[in-house]
Specification:
Elements: H1 2-9, H2 12-57
Length: about 60
């Protein structure tokens, strides 16, 4: 019985799980932010490419 009481009162595992969840949340936020930044950079370089192509053709 003492073993089960100690097991129920042990919070080390809970702390590790909490840190894992926080790390996962940070990773999801970072991936989302980087994906958005990547799309914006792609659009910017696309605009530059179009403008350079238009300038080369004399339009």
């Amino acid at each position: 019985m003492k073993f089960f009481n100690e097991l129920l009162n042990d919070e080390q595992g809970a702390t590790a799980i909490e840190y894992g969840l926080i790390a996962a949340l940070i990773a999801v936020a970072a991936i989302t932010a980087m994906g958005s930044l990547g799309n914006q950079l792609g659009n910017t370089f696309g605009e530059v490419k179009t403008k350079m192509a238009n300038d080369q053709s004399g339009s």
